[in-house]
Structure prediction request, 161 residues.
Amino acid sequence: MSKSHSYRTKIIWTGNDGVGTHDYRSYRRDYLVRTETKPDLLGSADPVFRGDTHRYNPEEFLVPALSSCHMLAYLHLCAVHGVIVEEYRDEAEGEMVESADGAGRFTWAVLHPVVTISGGDPNVARELHDTAHRMCFIARSVNFPVRHEATITTALPAHPD
Prediction:
């Protein structure tokens, strides 16, 4: 039986400087991402498209969405399979290619999780990345390849049994 989950956000354009979109240079690309219970996120276009370098752009939202989705699936799997994760970091990256007509698309993303475990089999910890990849809702929804290149290190248990 499948379940349906809904997500709602509001996007509020804040870049009207008095003349709207009169021409390409007459407006800022700034906007707010708003939900009912969380702080606003400040968004804009990528600076190459006249956006604000101090605000997140849609491309920067996509890459961490892939990374965090993978991480959350992975942590769940580790908990279920007896792998004790003490630290998880990722320096994810993705590439968007712009075509001559101005359209663009992501062509790939690579996750680089560095995971420190204090219990469980390091080989199982490594293999669970493949399962997490197959389970990640975001990676399953995009039309470009998402790879992961994980590093597993071991540490002494932080919490003795």
